[in-house]
Amino acid sequence: MKNRYGRKNGRYVFPVVVLVMLLAFSFVFALLTGAERISLHDVFSSGSDTDFSRIILLNLRLPRAVLAALAGVLLAGAGAAFQLFFRNPLAEPGIMGISSGAALGAVAAGVFSMTPVLGGTVSPVNAGAFCGALAAGVLVSALGGRRSGPSSTVALLLCGTALGTLYSALTSIILLLREKELHAMYVWMLGSFNGRGWDELSFIALPAALAVILLLVCAVPLDLLAGGERTAASLGVEVNRLRVLVMAAGALAVSAAVCAGGTIGFVGLIAPHMVRRIYGAKSRALIPLSMAAGAVLMLLSDTLARTIAAPAEIPVGVITSLLGAPFFISLIFSDRGLRNGY
Amino acid sequence: MGCTLMRNGKICGRESLYRLLTVICIFTFFPVLSLTAADSSVDAKAINTTALQAFKSKHAERIVSLSPAATEILCAVGAFSQIAARTDFCDYPAEVKMLSSVGGFDGKTLSIEKIISYKPDLVYATHGMHDYLVNTLRSYGIQVYISDASFVKDVLTEIADMGSITGHEAEAAAVRNHITSVLDAVNAKIQGLAALSVYWEVWNSPYMSAGKDSFLNDLVTRAGGSNIFADINQAYPVVSEETIIARKPDVILIPDTESVTPQSVKTRAGWSTIPAVRSGRIIRINSDVTARPGPRISDAVLLLAKAVHPEISFDGIK
After folding, report:
1. What angle do CA A203, A137, A270 make, to 5 degrees?
2. Domain residue spans of chain B
């Protein structure tokens, strides 16, 4: 059966099945591997809440795996939406200045020792990152929204980049003035799910859910926008409203993701491109497929980050960039990538 | 990808494989190379030997101290009047606040002009963060001494060096004797006691602790504790939360900041099985005393010994 774009609906069945299987595999893999050995037998048979294996699995690995998967979903979903909206292959959460805003919020909260949020359960640094990202998203939307017409998306993109640079400069100033925290904050900025658990998860659950729903809602109008703003407008898409929607979804998604894992680079950029190159997917499927791919990437990277130097850990952002960049470049030059229009 | 052998009559498989390998090599080795290159620019030992030679007959009279620990060492050996300037972070002993400051601590926030404006004959720097100032200062004929203390014994050497550079050998020897006697007295008290396992939390998001090559590891060992992350080579590694729980520390040391409290450590999910959490031995440590490789290391060891072994009295030691 063909839909009105002349594409077969059945086209995505196979990739979706493969991705879901990969996702399930990486999730289970993340639960079963770690710095310490745990016994699955103890987890299910003891029933005691003080059993070591049970604590490790249920209190540490499970929330961390969920957080990593969720951060992957959010960053990749936001990346895909930004790329579609700006029709720019370089668009990603970082380019809108939202990640830099998150870093600024985190550093400000960490350095000026703000009072812990939610009775001290969520680290002020992570809560500060959430607020910083959200504020950056609102500010860039407000500034970019002052222009209307075809140039407005370009204005938004440029504003985002400029603001991002501004936030980075402010972050550097704070860090240089308060050098004691320099190393710790530097490590935070590299991105890590270490030290995050159920508290962070419950803190971001609502914004994350809202972001995922909004991103999926954006998928259809973004698909129409692929034909150009004029064409989309003639098909009934209100570009200005869509911009608000995309920005709100993106800002919420990135805020939740940085609260979960710090500023993790590259996943938001490469997950949508991977999906596009491997599946040749267009926008309606691009957002959900990118979300799944982002989750797989993040879960595998975090598992590697936790285990490769155990009992020490490596920042997950280092892994996503170190492995992601060469894979990404090889994909661009691969036959498959060439066939899919690059 | 890369598995299609023929496209447009051209063999592509091997070519794209090479391309992939080249790309992987570049991305893997570039960061590794830049990491190793950053470390080897300054030879601290040779520079310090030169400084010691230079001040053999004529002692240093105008010293710019670039770290709180350096300032503490200079004051301890009685060279307060020979300090020309300090940093904003130098706050101990209290009289150093009367001295003028050259600014921050990190080399990148310090102005070479400002340092030179004090016409120093010696700049007392720290290995790593001040490396890039060293060659410039020396090219102006200013001697540099580079502090590189990873262990307590390095601090003792440094105190002796400063004694000879400033002409206060006797005072330096007294300071060294005091430190050694306190360390020996603590050591005598903890003799025969089982070493308690200690988790030193440097930071909590992510969890960072002290590894084998850290000053903190040496302090804990001398205070009769055994650092649970002494098997990690890095000085301040990010550590696995699973391993913290698995290694069951008897004592948890946390920094005395507002963001972490003994109460917040107790409520962390999954930490209730840790002996230190059950017995409530989560102790805040003044990081100024423990983080500075200066003359107060004996105070730090004593402070830690009291934390690790509350059952014995260290009253006689001062």
Report:
1. 85
2. 44-167, 194-308
Asked if the ipTM is above 0.85, the reply is no
Question: How much is the pLDDT for B106?
Answer: 63
pTM: 0.77
Structure tokens, A111: 């350095």
As given in the structure block, the two tokens for residue B32 are: 């590794």
Q: Where does B44-167 sit in CATH, by number?
A: 3.40.50.1980
Token readout for A92 is 């990603």
Tell me how far apart the alpha carbons of residues A323 and A308 are, in angstroms, rounded to a whole number.
14
Q: Cα–Cα distances in Å, from A284 out to A222, B44, B140, B263?
A: 8, 60, 66, 49
The residues near A153 (Cβ < 8 Å, ≥ 6 apart) are A85, A86, A87, A144, A229, A239, A243
Per-residue pLDDT, averaged over B289-317, amounts to 85
Q: How far apart (Å, rounded) are the C-alpha atoms in residues B264 and A275?
A: 42
Which chain A residues contact residue B268 at CB under 8 A? 197
Q: How confident is the model at residue B233 (pLDDT cuts 50, 70, 90)?
A: confident
Comparing CA positions, the residue from B287, B235, B239 lying closest to residue B127 is B235
The answer to whether residues A315 and A191 touch, using CB atoms and an 8 Å cutoff, is yes
Closest Cβ–Cβ partner in A36, A56, A334 for B2: A334
Between chain A and chain B, the number of residue pairs with CB atoms below 8 A apart is: 154
Read off the amino acid at residue B143: Q
Inter-chain residue contact B2 with A306, CB threshold 8 Å = no
What does DSSP say about strands B122-126 and B143-147: parallel, antiparallel, or unpaired? parallel
Write the residue in B106, B246, B264 that is nearest to A179 by C-beta. B106
User: Encoding tokens for residue B206?
Assistant: 């992510």
Which range among A277-281, B191-195, B201-205 shows the weakest confidence by mean pLDDT? A277-281
Rg (CA), chain A: 20
Hey, which residues does A80 pair with through a beta bridge? none
CATH says B194-308 is which class? alpha beta
From the list B231, B261, B273, the residue facing A55 with the nearest CB is B273
Contacts of A325 in chain B (CB under 8 A): 27
Q: Report residue A137: phi and psi, to 5°.
A: -65, -45
Asked whether the predicted pLDDT for residue A339 surpasses 60, the reply is no
Alpha-carbon span B216 to A85, nearest angstrom: 51
- Residue-range domains of chain A with CATH: 5-340 (1.10.3470.10)
Asked if B44-167 and B194-308 have one fold, the answer is: yes
- In this structure, the strands spanning B196-200 and B143-147 are unpaired
Indicate the residue type of A197.
Answer: G
Question: Which residues in chain B are contacts of A185 at CB distance < 8 A?
Answer: none
Residue B208, φ and ψ in degrees, nearest 5 = -125, 140
